[in-house]
Every structure is written in C-alpha cells, then in structure tokens.
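Hey, I'm writing a tutorial for new members on how sequence and structure tokens pair up, and I'd like a real worked example in the thread rather than a made-up one. If someone can provide the structure for the chain below, I'll link this post from the tutorial.
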Amino acid sequence: MARIDHLYMPDENMDSLYTSQNALVRFVHSQRLDKIVEFVAKANLPKGARILDAGCGEGHLIQRFHQQMPLHEYFGVDIMDNAVRQSHERVPFAQVKRMDLDSLQFPDNYFDVVTCTEVLEHVYEYQDVIAELTRVLKPNGLLIITHPNEVLWTFSRLLLGRRPLRVPDHVNAFVPGFMKRRVGLRVMAQQNLPFGLPFGLSLTCLLAFQKK
C-alpha cells in the first residue's frame, strides 16, 4: 500500500485527513471546520439563509454546518469531479455543482455566508476568485477564508523527510495581512490555528470578513 502523506493529500485521498489514524492530523483538520461552523453559528442567521462552500471538496464542511444549523440552504462548488460526486453522496440535501471558482454561476448578492477554506493557495488567479466570492455575497454577509502557513508546512515536511519540501499543488503562499488587503472587506475576526499562537507558529489562519 502506498504511504499516505498527511502533509500533502491529493484529491482522491482528502477523506483520509478526517479519518486518519494519526490523532493530531484528525484534530488539526477537524478543528478548522469546527471553528468555521462555530463562527457562523454565532452570527444568528435567519432561517433559510443561503450558505456557499466554494471549493467544497467532499462536503465535510457542509455536513458539519448542517448538523449544527439544519434549517439553512446549502450550496457547494468544486472543480474536481470526484469531489462533487462524493459530496452528492455525503450531503444529498445540498446543491453541489462542478464549477470554476473564478466564474461562479450565481446572481450578485445571493449568499448570506460564503466559505473558502484551504483553497486559494491552489489557484493561480486567486484575486479573480476573491472577486467572485465577494460578488455573490449579500451586503452584510460573511466571507470566511482560511489559508495555510506555507513556511511552517514546509519546515514540517523537512523535519519529517518529505519530498518535495513545498506542498506540490500549492502555487501561492499567503500571510494574514496580505490576504486582508487583497480581500478588502471589513475584518471581523482572525484565528490562528490550531492553538491560537502567532501566525508564524500556526499551521492555518482563519479570517472572517463582512461585506458592506
């Protein structure tokens, strides 16, 4: 059996992040989803609010949203056929489609919440994606973005003897200040995960924005 590299997961193995025998791996990736759900739950959205997960993968975040807030309307989009198929199986109540994130087929000001977690580091034209996420978000709506700390991930791969050192499909590296400027919306919160340490010592940054 091929070794599963928990510091780099190709599309067909993404489920292994949440079912890993490594407790730390399960904690890191599950906590990220839990923190997103926790933040959105505190927003006291109206019944039937529309929530979009852009780059939804196999639907894990949508599933957790629905477990906590079953009365909302859920949407997911992803570019990977396999991810969309698995999402249909995991979250049949959601409207999940294969779609490019830089050309979302939704009206302006359509969603109450848009999430995009651990996605933008994979996308060359990430600014086009940010523009689309903002376009489909309602005024006063919430946009939640997470991105990894590439320096710490690279250092972790070095310590564990992984090659190549850079995660192969990560084409961008972000820091929170840069991401805040690129998004350009009101910053509601920043959480550095998993332990709330400064970003330089954290694996992931969660940023929550509000559209005016």
